[in-house]
Amino acid sequence: MNQKLNQKLNQNQENTELLPAKPQDVMMLTAFSKWAFESDVQVGAPALVGPPGYKSNQFYSQMNCAKYLYSFFANGIIVGGAVLIPGGNPKGTEVEIARIFLNPEYFKKGYGIKLMQAAEAMFPDAKTFVLDTPIWNVRTNSFYKKLGYIEYKRNEEFVFYRKDREE
Fold first, then answer.
1. Which end of the chain is more exposed for a tag (fewer CB within 10 A), N or C?
2. Cα–Cα distance, 52 to 5 (Å, whole number)
3. Per-residue model confidence (pLDDT) at position 99
């Protein structure tokens, strides 16, 4: 990890953890998701929009029932979440990071890095992590590249990234 990332992590010594979401977390996670994705208008989003279901309690309840929804905590308080889908390839060694989001009050403070590290650590047997992000989103494209994700494909709307775990 580069020196700048380490400095950002050291500035923030709070205890963080990523845990499977509980049903009572869904409303708060939905609110944070809506807030986070709608903040993307500041980095090029054409409107106050997000990925499918980004502001839907029903969507996040379904993800929770499927065991794909996670709550991200800082000092015991939920500050964000993730939808993580394991088994994306025939060998079951791939994890799709379908989405991550933080309460925007926690942006640019090292929490996104810790969330991604925790997401990767949740799946110690995974060999590959994949995700996608809109082409126009300068913030997320830069973020994933800093974390070692490599673009492997793009279409008119999205950039697709992967990160292979070192053995």
1. C
2. 31
3. 96
Comparing 77 with 8, the larger pLDDT belongs to: 77
123: left (phi over 0), alpha (psi -120 to 50) or beta: beta
Q: Do 55 and 36 contact (CB within 8 A), yes or no?
A: no
| Alpha-helix runs per DSSP H in the chain | 3-11, 26-38, 57-65, 111-121, 138-146
Are 74 and 108 in contact, with CB atoms under 8 Å apart? no
CA 4 – CA 147 distance, rounded (Å): 12
Number of structural domains in the chain: 1
One-letter amino acid at 52 equals P
Q: Does the pLDDT at position 9 exceed 60?
A: no
Q: What is the CATH number of the domain that holds 160?
A: 3.40.630.30
Structural domain span for residue 9: 3-164
CA atoms within 13 A on the CB side of 25: 24
Higher model confidence: residue 150 or residue 1?
150
Residue-wise pLDDT tens digits, 101-117: 999 999 889 999 999 99
